[in-house]
């Protein structure tokens, strides 16, 4: 009988340890998440977009619902090579980032926590068939209030009414951005001139060019929340002694961040 009691007690203790370990792992990446928000303009979709999905090689997809009025919020752990799609009943429309160089960006990296508002997201179909107008940060790209244009060349619902070009704020992508490993971060064209996409719609992340795409009011930088090149600890999101973006040791390394079992 004593042996049975001992076996039951040991089994219960093991189950408790496993449960605590699993619970700790479920929240391990929350501190390093980038939150992307925005609002989908549903009128451009053949059927309403219901889900926003982010993918990167070697990791499970991250999905979030799109509310009935179009708003969404999705949290992305630190990682390299993200791409985002907006899913409707019959297709996936890729989020692309037109650059003032004429290239069409697709991928981006997340190196730390923070938030980025994409603004209004609109479906444009094949980006190679469009011109793009690059405007300064703070310019009116979307006329959500329904007020008429003052005729001063402002964008209306994401479109330049005089040329039909799609309006994009690229300042958001260059303000504080750092270069990706491929070195392909473009600077904004301050002239405000319309720029056509390259004929081959070259992607600045070496991915396949999208043929059904959406464009946001505000471009993401190629790398969001870049680590400081000088190793500034204030710019590193450290988890259990490891920087999740690079795999490098931080804050004394794993040995200095082990739970000694004393509680607290």
Query: What is the CATH architecture term?
Result: Sandwich
Which percent range fits the helix content?
A: 10-25%
Counted up, domains total: 1
Summed over residues and divided by their number, the pLDDT gives a mean of: 70
What composes the largest sheet?
A: 11 strands, mixed
Radius of gyration: 23 Å
Shape: elongated
**CATH superfamily heading:** Immunoglobulins
- Unreliable runs, pLDDT <50, ≥5 residues? 6-30, 144-152, 175-203, 228-235
CATH topology: Immunoglobulin-like
SSE class: mainly beta
How much of the sequence is in beta strands? Answer: 25-35%
Report the CATH C-level class.
Answer: Mainly Beta
The total count of helices amounts to 2
How many beta-strand runs? 14
> How would you spell out the order of helices and strands?
HEEEEEEEEEEEHEEE
Verbal overview:
This protein has 264 residues and is mainly beta. The protein has one domain: Immunoglobulin-like, CATH 2.60.40. The protein is built from two helices and 14 strands. The protein has helices spanning 2-26, 171-174, and strands at 34-40, 51-55, 62-65, 71-76, 79-87, 92-98, 104-105, 108-110, 114-125, 131-135, 166-169, 194-196, 213-216, 223-224. The radius of gyration is 23 Å and the shape is elongated.
